[in-house]
Design goal:
The two termini are 31 Å apart. This protein has helices at residues 45-52, 56-62, 78-87, and strands spanning 13-14, 20-21, 42-43, 67-68, 74-77. It has 96 residues and is an alpha+beta fold. The strands form two sheets. A three-stranded antiparallel β-sheet has the order 3-5-4. It has a two-stranded antiparallel sheet with strand order 1-2.
Length: 96
């Protein structure tokens, strides 16, 4: 089950808190924020790769703009990543 999906329990099962849930009842309800608002202001290549669902090395290959803080230290700002993402063509040939 993914981290953003609600947790469902079986009919009459006891949760970790000891409460009995009915079939299909949501055991935990979390307020969903838009995915881009959950991003930190400054991110590493790994964090950007996780957000874009690609490997970290692919982030550089894709040309995502970054701050070069040294020979091996690159950081990505949330605003730059989101702006870059908006300029990319969408699936099925639809323009951004």
């Amino acid at each position: 089950m993914c981290a953003g999906c609600p947790a469902y329990t079986k009919t009459g099962s006891t949760s970790a808190t000891g409460t009995v849930a009915k079939r299909g009842a949501v055991a935990q309800v979390a307020v969903q924020q838009p995915r881009d608002q959950m991003l930190p202001a400054v991110m590493t290549r790994q964090q950007v790769g996780d957000f874009l669902q690609v490997r970290p090395r692919q982030v550089e290959r894709l040309g995502v703009p970054c701050l070069n803080l040294g020979r091996k230290t690159k950081r990505y700002t949330r605003e730059d990543v989101l702006a870059w993402l908006e300029t990319q063509p969408r699936l099925h040939g639809r323009a951004a």
